[in-house]
Amino acid sequence: MMNEFEEINKSQNKKLVIVIIALGIILVAGIVLFVWQHQQIEKAKQETEQLKQENEQVKLENEQVKLENEQVQLDNEFQVLEDQFHALEIQSQAIEIPKQALKDPKIQKEYDNAKKRIEQLRKELEDEKKKGGKNLERIKELQAEINTLKDIMRELVARIDALQKENEGLKKDTTRLKAERRVLSTQVKQVTEEKKVLEERMVLAEKLNVTGVLFSALNKKGKNEKKIEKAKQLKVTFTIPQNNSTPVGVKNIYLRITSPEGSLLGNAGSFAFEGTSLQCTARKQIEYGGEEIGGITIFWDVNTTLTKGEYLVELFTDGYRLTSRRFNMTK
User: Fold this and answer.
1) Can you give the pLDDT at residue 97?
2) Measuring CA to CA, which of 30, 75, 242, 326 is 20 to 30 A from 100?
3) What angle do CA 291, 292, 298 make, to 5 degrees?
4) The CATH number of 211-329 is which of 3.30.160, 1.10.1740, 2.60.40, 1.25.40?
């Protein structure tokens, strides 16, 4: 009897343990499921927030582009207005009456105010760009003001156009005078151009020319060096052909060599050219007697690091450029 009772207790204990284990598994599974669901919810919130921020950024960028386009349209319409005012000024000059007689003072005042506000608006737009253009509300305010200014521009253009039509009668009275002035202006221009052509031909005839320009690198023995990086000296060789129109005498030849990086090599002083002063790489003085001079060479001792690339060689004399050649030194 005792054994049967113990067996029953053992069986009940085993069932109780199984139930407890099953409940524990269910509890752990529930906790794991709860944690997983919470993580998924948080992840979804983060993704939603990120998507919202990205949408806001795209919206902001679109508004910035729209604002810039509207600014361009405003500038274009303002240019139309400027052209209209310019036309009125030309009109007043053509008929020899004060331009104020052709302009409405109210239009002039509105024009000046609009012009001033457009300049202020440009500055505000630049300031907004420097700040990163992140103020969407301010961008919308600027857009609204641009649209208002565009309406003002269109109204002023229409009113100026009406003024121009009223002045057509005055323009007709001056048609003959303007025609005579155009004829006279054309004649003066023609004579001036003919004189200029003759002067240019004379100057060209007197200028020296150069042919056979060569550019080479030399080593320390004075021999040709294929690798520009190893050059100890640069040499430019050229020929001056015969020119009986060129005044004879001493000629100063100025050489400029520009590196592939855009910097001038050397510093052998300056010379005058087209109203300014240029530095030269090297210079040479020759005696020109009207006959051809061949094999003229100008050397420059290398005092800096040279690199492979395209070198610009220019020769000048008497205030003009003799030649401009590019040499590719890539070996």
Assistant:
1) 45
2) 75
3) 125
4) 2.60.40
